[in-house]
Specification:
The chain has 334 residues and is mostly beta strands. It contains 3 helices and 17 strands. It folds into 2 domains: 19-80, SH3 type barrels, CATH 2.30.30; 116-333, Lipocalin (Beta Barrel).
Length: 334
Amino acid sequence: MLFRIAAFCLFSALALCATTADTQERGVLVYKDGNRITGALVREQGQPIHFVSDRFGILKYTPSEARFEAEREEDESLVYRGKTPALPAAPTPHPPATASAPKAAQKSHSTQSLIHPWKIKLNGYLDKTDDNGTQRREYLSAVRIERHTSTNQLSLDTRYEYTGRNNSIDRRRATSRGDWRHFLTPRAFTLYTPYFEYDGKNTSAGRNDYLLNQQQAGLGYRLLTVKNYDTRIAATWSYFDLRNYDLNTESSFSAPSLILENNLRLPWEFDLRQKGQLYYLPAQEKFGWDNESDLTKKINRTLSLTLRHQYRRDYPALGLNPINRLRLLFGLEF
C-alpha cells in the first residue's frame, strides 16, 4: 500500500515537472469577474485549456470563462517570482509646512525676507554754465531706500546739493527724510516722519544758514486704491527745532498740517508721484505750502529719467529759504 502511494506521488511530481518544462508562454489569466492569476499557458489546443498558475497549480478553463494575456518582456522577471507587475507609483504630495520646520530653513527664509524687499534708487544732476566770464557749477546726488510689506512701509531719502561760483562755494545743502507707515487696516495707517535739513555756506543775498530738525506724526487714510492709482490723505502734527546760524538764534515750535499724496502709473512706463503738505502756524496766522512732484520714465529695469518739481513757500519755520525749481534727474534702481 505504501509503495503505491509513493509511486503515485512520484508520478505526479514527474508529470508536473514535465508539464512545466513544456510551458509555451507566461502571462496572466483574466476571469470574467476581474480576478487575475499569473502563471503559464500549457496547452492551448482543445477544450479545456490548461493553465499552470504560480499559486494554485494546474487550472482548466474555456474561452467563455476567462482569457489569457501574454506578459511583456520587461515584466518577465517579476512574473517568474510570482509577482504581478506593479503600476507606476503616484507622486507623493509634499506635506504642508508646519511650525516645526528646521531652524536652518526658517533662518534662511528670514534672512531672505530682510534683504530681498529692499529697493535702492540713485539719482543725480549736473549743471555747468559759463556766462560772460561767470562760471557756475551745480551738483545733486540722492539716494532713496525703501521697503514695502503687507503692513509696513519704510523709506529713507537722503540728498546733497552743491553750488559753486567762480571756483568758490556758493551754496551747500543736505537733507534726510525718513518715513514709516504702519497699516492698521487695508486703508487706515499711522505715520512717523523725521526730517533733517542743513542749508549753509550761502553767499546769495536773502538766504540764511540754518539747521532744521522736524518730527512729524499723524493718522492717514487711503481715499482711493485701484489698479494704477492710489490717493492718500493724512492729518499730522509737526514739531520743529530751528537753529539760525546767521542770527545765532534757536527756536522750537509746533504746527498742524494736512498731507495729500497721489501715486499714478501711466502708459509707456511712466510713474507720477506727488506729495503736498499744507501747514498752519497759529502764532503767525499764516499758511505754508510744500509740494514735490516726480514724473519718472522707466528706460529698463535699472535706468530711469525723472522730472522733479519742488515748491516751498511760507514754511512754518519762516527762516527757511523758499524753493521753486525744476530738474531733470538720471536714476539707477536696484
